[in-house]
Amino acid sequence: MIGIDWTYFLYVGPFMLLSLWASWKVKSSFRKWDQEPNASGISGAQVARMILDRPGLQNVKVERVEGQLTDHYDPSAKTLRLSDATYDSTSVAAAGVAAHEAGHAIQDKVKYPMLAFRTAIVGIAGFGSNMSMIIITIGMIMMSFLGSKLGFYIAAVGVALFSVVVIFQLITVPVELDASNRAKELLQNMAITRTGSGTGVNEVLNAAAWTYVAAAATGIATLLYYVVRLAGFRSSDD
Ligand SMILES: [Zn+2]
User: Do the Cβ atoms of 47 and 98 come closer than 8 Å?
Assistant: First the structure.
């Protein structure tokens, strides 16, 4: 029977709630600290430029990108892209986000191993996040309706592919924490804006970190759910 398997929510539900809370927290803390001007009164784009130029990263471009919270560093293009809200804003929040993205560019320059690993598997992880659920579903349908042994192997391939996605999400956590730590240190040392406990920079960057923790936890729980289901299929087959 195809229907909603409520046990799925037993595994994943709590982490979905954590994800929702984290993304709400990111938006609300950004909104709050975007009202507060940073100490040096410079825009996100200028913050990024200053941080990049210091260790000799003049080759890294700073560009504008559409959308909300779409800020990112692109290692293959050596380009730092900041959303409108960050690019022009002279707020504490904008300085925090811009410095965080510059932190990724520095990771790239110093060949931070976790970032290199993440970049190496980004292709297969992207393929996995598009395809794994489809493959798992096809395999499970073949098993339930046709009692097909092949279905089990197809579903297992899907689960293996999904585990690459989870590995990617797991590596993302230390990569993001490291970028934020670099950002906090640089903003403080370069006297761009104050960081430390209770400051806007910390609030915004810590909220962002929670979204990556929540995504990784959701991934692990989802993986566990499928492994348990597949194991159940296997044992009922014997
Ligand atoms: Zn980041």
Answer: yes
Residue type present at position 194: R
- 176 C-alpha to ligand 1 centroid (Å): 5
Q: Which residues surround ligand 1, an ion (CB under 5 A)?
A: 176, 179
CA of 37 to the centre of ligand 1 (A): 22
* Ligand 1 center from residue 102 Cα (angstroms): 9
Ligand 1: distance of its center to the CA of 223 in Å?
A: 24
Distance 178 CA to ligand 1 centre (A): 9
Residue 73: phi and psi, rounded to 5, are -110, 130
Asked whether the beta carbons of 109 and 57 are under 8 A apart, the reply is yes
pTM: 0.91
* Inter-CA distances, 185 with 66, 150, 154, 161, 215, Å: 28, 54, 48, 37, 26
pLDDT tens by residue, the chain, 238 residues: 456 788 999 999 999 999 999 999 999 999 999 999 999 999 999 999 999 999 999 999 999 999 988 999 999 999 999 999 999 999 999 999 999 999 999 999 999 999 999 999 999 999 999 999 999 999 999 988 887 889 999 999 999 999 999 999 999 999 999 999 999 999 999 999 999 988 999 999 999 999 999 999 999 999 999 999 998 877 665 5
Q: At what angle do helices 200-237 and 7-33 cross, to 10 degrees?
A: 170
C-beta neighbour count of 111 within 10 angstroms: 8
Q: What are the catalytic residues?
A: 101
